[in-house]
Amino acid sequence: MIPFSGNPLDRASEKRTDTAWVEAKRRDPSSLIMPMWRLQPFLIGAPKNNEPAELGLFRPGLFESMAAADAPWVFLGLEGERALFAHDISAAGDPENSGPLAGFGRFAEARGAAMALPMKDAAIMGQAKAMIDWHQRHGFCARCGAPTAIADAGYRRVCGACNAEHFPRTDPVVIMLATYGDKCLVGRGKQFPQGMYSALAGFIEPGETIEEAVRRELKEESGIETGTVTYKFNQPWPFPSSLMIGCFAEALTTDLRVDPNELAEARWLDKATARAIITGGRVEGIWLPPAIAIAHHLIKAWALD
Ligand SMILES: [Zn+2]
């Protein structure tokens, strides 16, 4: 299973426009509300990094008084009859040390938290983070600049001046492992630590298919030509709002001409080495992405095939 997938909630989208139902659920003592503070989830018991964590979800009325009056909130979905919400309390100064959440745990950076949470909770947290992040960036109308307000339980914003509607966005990204015989192409982004390599990736542009984006990105970043592109699997990636579309691409050429604006370097990695690293072995000078990243699963699927 790929992290951020497998969200167990029934999104119950038909309920979002039922304002009375939504408001009743926001106050229902059986509901649970997830605090998000500056895009960080709350972890119960303040686990240290790399320790298993439990996602902070609380009864209505416990902590929402810390939120600004117009703070984003979102109906995440139903777990049986129980409704789950997320509520942004970024206005609070230090909510893990003062106020109603003090002593229960700590807020944690979302990526690290996702690695520590059970898979289903990481997926719920990813949904909440992507949605709250979208609200924070869309307080004003992209058409006329006037303030927008939340509608549909958090799944729409409406401009108060021109009535334009704005919807949460998901940006498609292709991430692809180019292969040539028993070698695969990995690159080191300029911001990566020394020795860290991953599959190449890039945003799909308007007017492009997935296959066309894969071939263009590989050509631009590494200089290789590719033929057949095969879709493998995908991953919601809430940093801030991507859908990572994982593919394999058959390389037709192997000479590398790296775009220095995109990559520090690129190299062909043989299958035995890739298999050794991706299954937990150490190979001097080369690191591959951890299991939170779809690149890890793409390399693994190819290396173990
Ligand atoms: Zn407007």
Ligand set: zinc ion
Tell me the distance between the termini: 17 Å
Over the alpha carbons, how many angstroms does the gyration radius reach? Answer: 22 Å
Q: Report low-confidence residues grouped into runs of 5 or more.
A: none
Inertia-based shape: globular
Structural class comes to: alpha+beta
Order of helices and strands: HEEEEEHHEEEEEEHEEEHH
Number of DSSP-assigned strands: 14
Determine the fraction of residues in helical runs and give it as a percent range: 10-25%
Q: Would you tell me the overall average pLDDT?
A: 96
Number of H- or I-type helical stretches: 6
Largest sheet: 6 strands, mixed
Strand content: 25-35%
List key phrases describing it.
about 300 residues; alpha+beta; five-stranded mixed sheet; 14 strands; about 20% helix; globular; binds zinc ion
Could you explain how this protein is built, in words?
- With 305 residues, the chain is α+β, with helices and mostly antiparallel strands.
- Helix content is 22%, strand content 29%.
- It has six helices and 14 strands.
- The strands form three sheets. Strands 9, 10, 11, 12, 13 and 14 form a six-stranded mixed beta sheet that branches. It has a five-stranded mixed beta sheet with strand order 3-4-1-2-5, sandwiched between helices.
- Helix 2 (110-116) packs antiparallel against helix 3 and helix 5 (271-278) packs across helix 6 (294-303).
- The longest helix has 19 residues, at 119-137.
- The radius of gyration is 22 Å and the shape is globular.
- The mean pLDDT is 96.
- Zinc ion binds at residues 141, 143-144, 146, 159, 161-162, 164.
- Zinc ion (ZN) is lined by residues 141, 143-144, 146, 159, 161-162, 164.
